[in-house]
Structure formats: C-alpha cells, structure tokens
Write a structure and sequence with these properties.
Chain lengths: 482, 482
C-alpha cells in the first residue's frame, strides 16, 4: 500500500523540486529579517517578520489571518512598555469532512553577530552551491520549517490539488525567549480559533545525527535562572578599591561554582532524586538508535564527550537533567584587559528537565541551595536569585496515528524507516498544545543534528529543506487518510 | 618664606582663574575624542587625540615636538597589524641654568558606553554648573591633569612670565592597556630626548578622600592574567548538548572560584608569604591620615567595606595585595536568557602587587595554582593561563626636594598641609622613569577619591581642575628654586 500511495504523491514531490529556486528565495527573505526576540532593540524586526509571514499567507490563499497581540512584555525587561511580538494565525481550508492539523512554528531567532565568528553575515543567507547548504541565522531554527509549510501549500496550489486536511498555522515570535504570552493565547483560543483541531505538528527540532531522519516523541524542559549580586553603587577601579570592598564577582563565581561539576553532575541537592528511574525496557530502546560517540564529536567539533558510548550519551541527552552556565551580565566581557570591579553582576544558568521533575519543586531546590551557598559567604553584598522562564518536559506515544503517518511519509521521501527519538532541547509549547487542545502532538524535524541552531554558521542542507517540504506534505496526505 | 613666595605666585593664580572658561573648553575638546586604547576599533581615535595634543603644544610654543611610533601591538590582539598609538614628546625651554622637569600623563582612557549606566554621554563633557563638576570619560583619568600642564604654560604665556624650569612632556596612549611600548621608549630616550631631566612628575592618581589634598609616594603594581578554556568547535545549544559534552564555562567558573574569598583573602598558595612584614613604625604612619570607613562607603556608593576601621582599609589599599575577578570573554553577557554553551571562554583577573612580591615569581605561583586546579577537574577541554600585562609596585621618599616643593604649592593653594599617602592603583611607568632616568618621581594628584576613574559618570570637580592647575604651576616654581 505504501508504494501505491507513494506513486500518488510523486507529482507533489516533483512540483516541490521544480519550485526549489523559489523556495530558496523565500527562505532567503525570511533570514534577511533579524527577528531576534531577546534583543529589545530588534523588536521592530520581529514584528516585521510577522508581517512578512502575513503577506505570504495572503498570497497563498490562507483565510481568517490574524495578528494576535500579547500586550507588554513582563519584567525583567529594560523598556517596561515593550510590546510582545504578535502571534500569526491563519487557515487553509475549512472542510468539516477533513481532519484539521494545527502547525506551529516560530519566526524569532537567537542573537547573532558576524563578530561571534560567523564566516558570512548571519542575516544574509549564504548559499554554498558546492556543498548545497544554506547558511544563515534561523535557516534551520525555525525559519526553514516555517516557510516549509508555506512551500507545501504553494506546491498544492501549483498542482491544482486540494489539501487533504484543513490546515491551521500558529507562528510565534518569542520562542527563543520563553514563549512569553503563548500559553495564555493557546488556552484562550483552544475552543475558539483552534476549535476542531485534531492534531498538532511542530517542526522545530533536528535529526539526532546527520544521516538518518527521525521522529521525536519526547523533549526535555528548561528552567532558566539568574543570580543577581550587587555591591557598589557603580563599577569601581580595582587598584583603588581592590582588597577593601566585597566584590560581587567574587561572590557570584563562588556561588556558580557550586551548581555543576565538570562531568555534568548537578550539585543542587534533591534534583537527581526527582528523576524517574530507568527501567530495563527503556534501557533496551537505546540499543536500536543510529548514533555514535563520533557523531557527537563531529557535531560538537571537539572530543569533549562526557560519555564513551552511544547509550549513555542518548540517556544524558534525553532522560537525565543537565545544568549549563551560560554567562554573566554586567562583568567585563570584551577582549583585552579592563581593571574594573563590576558593581552588579547577573549569573545566568539553566537546567534541562525530564520526567518526573516538578518545575516548581525544582525552583524551590535551586533557590534554597543558592541562598544557602550565598549565605555561607557572609558577604555584605545584596543577593537575589530568580527564575527567568520555565517550560516543562514532554513525552508522547510514538505509535499513534500521526507518528505512523509521518513515518510513512519519511520512508517515501528518504527511503528509510525513521528512528524514534527524544530530544534534549525544549519546545515548551508542545506540552501546552497537548494539554489545552487535548490532542496528540507530533515533532517532525527538518534539519540535521549538526545544523548549529543557537551557534555560529547555522545552516540547513538544501536536501533537508527540499525533502523536508516533501515529508511535511506527505505527512498531511497520510494523516488526512488515516 | 612660604607666604612671601605665595604673594609672588598670586598673579599666576589670578591668571588661572581668568582663563577658567578657556581651560574648561580645552578639557571638553579632549573628552570629546573617545581615545579608548583597549578597543582596537577605536585606535584611530587614540591617534586623533595624540594629534590634538601636538597642535595644542605647537600653539603654546613647545619645541622639538615629536610623535614617537612604537610599532605593531604584540599579541594577544585581533588585528595583528594594529599599530600602537604614538608617544607625544615636547619641550618648553632649554635653559641649562634651570632644572628640567619631565611631566608624564596619558591621553588614552578606559572604555565607556552610555548603556553602562552613564547619566550623560561619556564622550561629551557635561558641565553641571550647580555642582560645579565636569563629567566625562577621562575628565580625571587622565585628560584633566594632562591639559592641566598645558594650562600652566598658557597662564605663564599670558603673564609674560618665564617658566622657572625647563619642561619636557611625555604623553602616552596605552596606559589603560599596560603601557605597551613605553618602557622601551623611556629606556631608549633616557640618554637622548630625556637627557638632563632632573625630576619626573606624574599627575595620574587621586586624593584619598574628597576633602584633603595628598601627595603620593607609593603605588601597588598590577599583574593581569587570563584563563582560556576551550571545548567545542563553536557555541552549542544547551538543550542538544547539555549533559553530554564538557562545558568550558563549568571548568572556568570552578577554577576562578579557587582564586579569592569574599573577605578578599587570596587563595593562591605562596602569595601572602612574599608580602613585606608590617613594622611598628609603618603601622603608626596610618594613624595620622585623614580617612574613614564612611568616606570609603561614600566613594563605593555602598556599605560593602571589608574592614571596619581606617587603618585596616588603608593597609589593604596600599600595602597588601588584592585579587579582582573582572569578567569573562566569550560567555553570554547580554540581558535576558540565551541557552548557549559557550565554546571558548576567557576569564580575566588581576592581582595588585606590593613590596616584596616579585612579579615573575608571582606569575609562577599563579600558573602553578591554576594549572593544578584545572587538572583536578579532569576535563577534556583545552586550557591555557597567561599574563596579559604586568607592572611593578613603587615606593619613594616623601621628604625629598620634589615632595617638599609640591607640599608648599599645595599649602599655598588649598591652605592645608597635604597627607602623604600611597595608592592602591598602578602606574607602572613610575618605576620605569625612576630606574631608567635615575631621578626621583613625584605623584601629584589633581582629582578626588570619588571621581569614578574606570567607572560610570567619571568626573572632575571644577575646583580640583582649577586649583590643580595652580598647584602644578606652584610646584614648578618651588622646585625650580630648590
């Protein structure tokens, strides 16, 4: 049956190939808008990106297009009147006889500067024709997949084909900054704009490696914290004040050093105890997955793996928590030497969460540990620890209708059965959709494990982009018939 | 005799007052050039500042004006062809019957951005007429004193007075970045351009507090280090890689946490043992100095003093070493949340040195300790620790001719006997001049202890600027006659 259906899909696949130049151009336009949600000064660009999507949706024949405003951004924020970027909603088809698929993606991106070490301008797409790779911030995370859905519609329009499902799109502009405002919107629209949705599909993650497509049924959550330590009224000269005032950096570094060990062990008491025990059945699942230490090393560009075998790597990426120290705001961060005693420093770290860590309980443990460690220092400096944002972990059933449809499409396009995987990253909205709409969520990745999301030289292979569009469309066909 | 001489100086003091508007304008011009030596992209502005000084010197009648080029800046540096800013040399008078005073100052400044928290643009001088204060980067460190010397000449020219000494000026543009190239130049010119110099005067430090002028006979040195830890080939996404790779930030924070305690105690073994023991005689010297915990708190804008009495504060500022953690290059340093695993992080710290710490021996202890601490981590990351720059401590005789002359001038202008103090900051060139020229060095400060050198809202009180010019000129008169 699969081969019969595959034949049926051939004209669609062919049309995607024909439209390739136009699809690359569409991604180029999207990348050229620096929609960095964490940079308040770039907020107008995030809004510009929303408007770009609206005009694309209009042109493709979407209806009921709405820009949902989310109000001002809550603290901590420099400009207290800063507006959150809008959520873009749209429909393609409203046939009650068809299933309705809600497609979620985000149009904001991580920060990027050429000076960070990019080979080319991050916000000008670079097409390396020899390698057949598209470089640019957002290429894989998440502009490639977002415009991928639009490409699927364009191919159908060109063919004069009816879409086998009703499609609802929901594109947000704050995913890289905690999806502020989205939870409330989803809750509010669950019985309104999103009424009748049968399934939610998200294409915002990656293959595990670089060769084999995957479908993803689990994600880690993420609780992001900051430790604020404040002393002098302004930055001081270390010659004049060194040795006679308590320096906030000294305290912050001490406290941050008590959070995690070089081997990745989280040192905050009680966190590991909340992690669900590994069953024998689950342990065996990792045997089949196509992955290796070498693939991790290739993706990280180093030999810094903490584990010497595939199974431990996968477990620590998927089912164990991790703690990363991201940086310090307020300290000297330039090149060269500056003899400053920073007056106020803010340490940033996050914990990736897994079953059965309870987010609120984790916050308590974090606050308690850090407060105790700071109090041990007996410092006259002022101290505060706070959660910047959180998002829960998620685990689904990889054998339900949508996963089965996506597996068929993947096999048609790539010629292999995908691996069923979990992911280390967080897409907090996954859980919100599942809870508020009461439907299954499918994670259907487009890019590869070495795409460099959140890193310099972020890329998307043209083959992943084009075959990804085919897979997204094929999935809609199989799911529409299931 | 002092009062007779003071009468003699009255016309000079009066002329300084008359020229006040012009002198403020001169400082304004100097502040408007952002001559930040640590920022490679601003190097042309540092050169522009050198050219500004040259044109001022010409207009005032200086002769033999030279711009001494110092070649390319040695690593670590981003642009390997970057030229060091030139040293500005000039003479005023060459009468063999007179003494010759060499005046040193620096025309580069610390970095400053409005966003750092400045109330006004750092590179546009703001004259608060109500408080009678001049705000701007470099106002007190060290553009105020540098143009102060020019003002002294201008007042003499206006009066038609002969300068009682020959003056040689030596203005450098790399003081805030380790005075690269200056030592070699001083050594080279000691028997050439600087031949016949009888005394060196430096106005590049501050009063201890805000009320009483001081003369300074001692300085701490400064050894500035960086710890480089490098793992992945590029920054990574903490969701995908958290828990499975060794993170450079984790290692760096661990190592940095072993350097100093909240109470200021240096934890590197062997450093304290090198410090000269405190004699009873020296201990008594601190009794007389006008200072208090309250003055420290006012200057730091906080109640974060590590010591509860004047004497301990002064000892820890002047005669004990201190270690400050300045910041981290390569980690996330912005506001908000970024879920990045930084690939390469560079921790910056410096140690203020005092008698009898031997700089090379200190480097050895630092490298040994940090290497041991890193090795304890058993991390697969790459590690390096290096000295960025060093400068030795300095102690002089506060009862020699030049200190006596400066004390008289100070008393004439301010009506009080100055305190004889040491300083916590470093002016490495002090020692170089003393050694290479074989003459005494005097530190004659212009600004107050709360001027905020290296901090936001750096300022110079107009009274300190104008009375400072009088003091510099008065000093030249008394020294010329001594």
């Amino acid at each position: 049956m699969a081969s019969y259906e595959k034949l049926e899909l051939e004209p669609f696949f062919q049309t995607i190939e024909e439209l390739k130049p136009k699809f690359i151009q569409r991604l180029q336009k999207a990348i050229s808008i620096p929609s960095v949600s964490s940079d308040e000064s770039l907020r107008p660009k995030v809004v510009e990106m929303a408007n770009f999507l609206v005009s694309e949706l209009k042109e493709l024949g979407f209806t009921d297009i709405q820009l949902k405003e989310l109000g001002t951004q809550p603290p901590p924020v420099a400009d207290s009147t800063l507006q959150l970027p809008p959520i873009v909603l749209g429909r393609f088809g409203t046939d009650p006889a068809k299933k309705t698929v809600l497609v979620y993606g985000h149009y904001d991106v991580q920060p990027a500067l050429k000076e960070d070490g990019w080979s080319t301008e991050p916000f000008e797409m670079h097409y390396d024709q020899q390698k057949d790779i598209l470089y640019g911030r957002g290429s894989t995370d998440d502009k490639g997949p977002v415009v991928g859905w639009l490409n699927v519609i364009e191919a159908h329009n060109k063919l004069g084909w009816e879409l086998p499902v009703n499609l609802v799109v929901c594109f947000e502009g704050m995913e890289e900054s905690g999806s502020l405002g989205l939870d409330d919107l989803v809750a509010k629209e669950a019985k309104q704009y999103f009424k009748g949705v049968d399934q939610v599909t998200i294409s915002d993650n990656y293959w595990l490696g670089t060769k084999k497509p995957v479908l993803t049924y689990g994600l880690r959550g993420c609780n992001y914290y900051q430790i604020i330590i404040e002393g002098p009224g302004a930055d001081l000269h270390s010659g004049i004040f060194g040795g006679i005032v308590a320096e906030p950096m000294t305290d912050l570094i001490k406290v941050m050093s008590t959070l995690v060990d070089t081997d990745g062990k989280i040192l905050i008491p009680g966190v590991d105890a909340m992690v669900a025990p590994l069953t024998e059945k689950e342990d065996k699942l990792y045997d089949a997955i196509d992955f290796s230490v070498e693939e991790l090393n290739a993706a990280s560009g180093s030999k810094t793996s903490l584990h010497d075998n595939k199974k431990d790597i996968l477990k620590h990426r998927w089912r164990y928590p991790s703690l990363s120290l991201h940086g310090i705001e307020g300290a000297f961060s330039g090149s060269g030497a500056k003899t400053v005693i920073p007056a106020k420093v803010v340490g940033k770290f996050s914990i990736r969460t897994v079953p059965d860590i309870v987010s609120g309980k984790l916050d308590e443990l974090v606050f308690k540990h850090i407060t105790e460690e700071f109090n041990k220092l007996k410092s006259p400096n002022k101290f505060k620890v706070e959660l910047i944002h959180d998002g829960n972990y998620w685990v689904s059933d990889p054998f339900n209708e949508s996963f089965t449809a996506a597996a068929k499409a993947t096999q048609d396009v790539w010629g292999v059965v995908p691996d069923f995987t979990r992911e280390g990253g967080s897409i907090p909205i996954t859980l919100t959709f599942e809870k508020e709409l009461g439907v299954d969520v499918l994670l259907l990745p487009m890019g590869r494990g070495d795409d460099g999301a959140h890193s310099i030289n972020e890329k998307l292979d043209v083959s992943n982009y084009i075959n990804g569009c085919k897979t997204l469309g094929g999935y809609l066909h199989y799911f529409g018939k299931s």
